[in-house]
Structure formats: structure tokens, C-alpha cells
Fold this sequence. Notes:
The protein is mainly α. Helix content is 79%, strand content 0%.
Amino acid sequence: xxxxxxxxxxxxxxxxxxxxxxxxxxxxxxxxxxxxxxxxxxxxxxxxxxxxxxxxxxxxxxxxxxxxxxxxxxxxxxxxxxxxxxxxxxxxxxxxxxxxxxxxxxxxxxxxxxxxxxxxxxxxxxxxxxxxxxxxxxxxxxxxxxxxxxxxxxxxxxxxxxxxxxxxxxxxxxxxxxxxxxxxxxxxxxxxxx
Length: 194
């Protein structure tokens, strides 16, 4: 087989695992940049060296045939003929990749922003979390989880005006929300009338 090919593929797998671990540890989305860099690197590497790797592989196989005696034309055709193993492996890996990307438990890229924002809140990075929640709200403005994430941030920052506005946004979509009503009554006296 192509030894260098498998080494490069091993690096691709390792970098994918490292990317996933990094996203879990720091809670940020590094996948777009790393996917782009990795895709370009793999394409450039295989595009540049793929034919040469095949040449080295074929040369090794011919030397092995010659070591057993003078190979006939039929022997060379058989040795250099189509192998169904590699294409089958490639198709299987492609299907696994498609299944893996499709099975993110139904989580969309937008939904992952909520998870990342929670990690940022736990780390005390309220400004970064606020940006993610507000970015999420552009596509889902009435999502209660984003509203409550922002409410938590505004309570931590003691930003009464923004807190009251966010509580009113919750009440516009759910007028009977007792938690929002309670907090609004509690904080309304602290800030200016909104």
C-alpha cells in the first residue's frame, strides 16, 4: 500500500480529533477555519504527490515480481490491475463521513452557538456569550433559551435597562411566563422606565 498516503490520512484523522477536543475544551467554533486549512492542505498534498506515490508503489511491486523471476505481461497486468479494496474503502469512509456529519443529534450550527454561549458564561466571558446569543437571535428571535441566557448575563453585569428589555421580549412571546413577570417586577424599580 501507499505508506505515505496512510501516514497523511493518519494526520488528517488526528487533526480532526484534536479539533473536536479543542472545541470541547475552549468552547469555540474552530471548525470552519481548521476545515478550510485542512481541506486545502490535503488537496495540495495529494494533488502534488499522489501520482508520485503511485509510481513508487508500482515500482516496488514490479521489483517484487522481478525478484521471483522474469514477470510475464499477464503477471504485470494482474499486479497493476484494478483493486476493489481501495475504492471500496474510500466509499465506506465517505459514507461514514456523511453519516457522522448528519448525526449531530439534530443540532444545527445555530444550536451549537447556544452551547458555546453557555460555556462562555461559565467561564465568565459574558461579552463573548452575549455576542453569540444575539447572533443566534437573528435567526430565532423568539427562542426562550437565548432570551434567558441574555437575562442571566444582564443580571451578572447589573445592566438593569438591558435586563428589563430582555424580560419584556420574553413576555411578548409568552405573556404568562411567571419567572419573567417576577423578575420584571423585581428589577423595574432599580432602573429607568423602559
